[in-house]
Each structure stands twice: as C-alpha cells, then as structure tokens.
Amino acid sequence: MIEVEVKAKIDNFEDMREKLNNLGAVKTKEEFQEDIYFNSPIVDFAKTDEALRIRTTEQNNEKHIFITYKGAKIDSKSKTREEIEFGIEDSEKCAKTFEHIGFKKVRTVRKNREYYAYKNFEISLDDVEGLSPYMEIEIGLEDGNDYQQSQDSIFEVFEQLGITDGFERTSYLELLENL
C-alpha cells in the first residue's frame, strides 16, 4: 500500500475542529497512540528515511497493537511512502524479539489523535506530547497507483481549511529528536 500523507502545523485544535465541521468532515473516533520506534542493525533508518515501529492504540478500554514499516518518502512535497502494517498480540514480546535480533529502541512517541472522514480522506488532529498541534490528511492507495492526483487533492483540502503553509515532511519522531 502507498500512504499519501501531508502534515501541517496548525494554530489550535478548536479552530480546526470548527473548520472541519464547516467543511462537512465527520469525526469518526478518538484514540491514544503509543509508538515505539526502532533502528535497524543493518542500515540507519534516520539516513534511509525508513521507519519501524510498534503502535499500541487505546480507545474505549480497547487495545490494538500493530507493527508498521514505512519505506523512504518517494517525493519532495509530502510524506508519500510505502507502508506495511499488521496486527500482533504482544508489544513487549515483539520489542524484546526486535532487540534480540539487533534492533535498537530509538524513542517512544505518544499522542492523542482525533480522526475525521471527509470524502475519501482520513484527517487527523494530533496532540503529540512535546510538540505543537498538527493535522494530517492522508489517502491510502494500492501499490502501483499514481499518487500525484491524490497528493494534489490533499493540498486542495488544506487550502479549503485555510492552510497554505507550515507543511512538514518530518516525522513526529524526527521533530522530537531535533528539539
């Protein structure tokens, strides 16, 4: 799967919630996310622009755990990249396995995320511990599909919401590492 994603810093959540409501976006859920990032013993993911994480989500006393691999970004305007994700049962056992085979824990990123649906877009408002407010808009595409039109449509939605700058290609992990 190709994840076409654009992220921007926003002034505050309340104004953006109102703008999303006026646009016709519908809030679908809220959840807490904890992401434990790892670096490879073979290549430095910071240099190759890849990511490997264990994500635990919590919503209404329900937990889900995923392993996610994100490939290097494939363009210079967005965070478009290959993404492979699958569910697992135990984050501690998985982390221990990663460490036994040479992967190193880099950092844990925690955030509260609100999801909104608008047309074929998934929009999230992200309250990341240690960072300013951010919003992400993404579309998932099957491998082999051209992502340019989806990317352009994401920037159009940002413009409709009054956001024309403050776009960020850097991951939350990188933003926290560079504080």
Q: State the helicity in percent bands.
A: 10-25%
Strand order of the largest sheet: 1-5-4-3-2-6-7-8
Instruction: Tell me about the largest β-sheet.
Output: 8 strands, antiparallel, barrel
Order of helices and strands: EHEHEEEHEEEHEH
Number of strands: 9
- Uncertain ranges: none
Rg over C-alpha atoms, rounded to the nearest angstrom: 16 Å
What labels describe this entry?
179 residues, alpha+beta, 8-stranded antiparallel barrel, 5 helices, 9 strands, globular
Could you describe the 3D structure shown?
This protein is an alpha+beta fold and 179 residues long. It is built from five helices and nine strands, in the order βαβαβββαβββαβα. The chain has an eight-stranded antiparallel barrel. A hairpin with a 2-residue loop joins strand 6 and strand 7. The chain is globular, with a radius of gyration of 16 Å. It starts with a strand and ends with a helix.
